[in-house]
Amino acid sequence: MPERRPDLIPAWVDDTLTPVDKLRAHQEGLRHKAVSVFVVQGREILMQRRAMGKYHTPGLWANTCCTHPMWREASDHCAVRRLEEELGLSGLHPEYRHTLEYRANVGDGLIEHEVVDVYLAHMLAPLGLAPNPAEVMETRWVDYHDLLAEVSRHPERFTPWLKIYLAEYADVIFGPELIVSSRI
Predict the structure, then answer these.
(1) Rounded to whole angstroms, how far apart are CA atoms 159 and 168?
(2) CA–CA separation, 17 vs 13, rounded Å?
(3) Which of 1, 70, 143, 163 has its CA 20 to 30 A from that of 21?
(4) How many helices (H) and strands (E) does the chain have?
């Protein structure tokens, strides 16, 4: 079996979970595993704008961290690892919230067909944020309600998966506390 390499992700080929080159998975629209993390502080969500060097959806706003686990890597380990690699965030304890599946065109003939383990991490005290410029070009904290309004007004600024998460899965990702508090 292949070693853990970042270019090999778990994807289903002929109904068998197989290590597949990440670009191939997107070119062929193969169903594959993914991990997404939302870091929240009160009603605010830490957002990242994807670096322009990303091979799909460059320059678009996404949730705090979105990635693919390496072959044989556990999703919870991947969530913690990528928070550190993408944003320099350590000391957070992401909580598993939901597994969801979606399929979306991400431009240039590439398809995300993901089975995503979604995590929520509460930032209780300020932590040092050091975005990796190869991954992230900008970050910002956005109130949940303001984010929904902005996505509604300017959907072209956001990744397809973020729009799907907010439209179809917000209740299971964020829970009633954040959603209800944003309506007050």
Answers:
(1) 14
(2) 6
(3) 163
(4) 5, 9
SS3 sequence of 43-88: CEEEEEEECCCCCCCCCCEECCEEECCCCCCCHHHHHHHHHHHHHC
Sign of CA dihedral 47, 176, 95, 34: negative
User: At 161, which amino acid appears?
Assistant: W
Residue of 79, 62, 61 whose CA lies nearest to 70: 79
CA 15 vs. chain centroid, Å, equals: 24
Quick one: pLDDT at residue 125? 77
Q: How many other CB atoms are there within 10 angstroms of residue 172's CB atom? A: 14
Cβ proximity of 23 and 9 under 8 Å: no
Would you please indicate which residues are annotated as catalytic (active-site) residues? 66, 114
